[in-house]
Amino acid sequence: MNRKAITPVIAVVLLLMMTVAAAGAAFFWMTTIQSRIQGQIGTQVGTTTTQTGTSLNMISLICDANTDDTINITMQNTGTSTIEAGTIAVTVTDEQDRVLKVATTELDNNFDQNQITSISLVISGGGMVQNSTYGIKVTLPGGIEGTSNCIAQ
Question: Three-state secondary structure along the chain?
Answer without folding.
Answer: CCCCCCCHHHHHHHHHHHHHHHHHHHHHHHHHHHHHHHHHHHHHHHHHHHHHHCCEEEEEEEEECCCCCEEEEEEEECCCCCECCEEEEEEEECCCCCEEEEEEEEECCCECCCCEEEEEEECCCCCCCCCCEEEEEEECCCCCEEEEEEECC
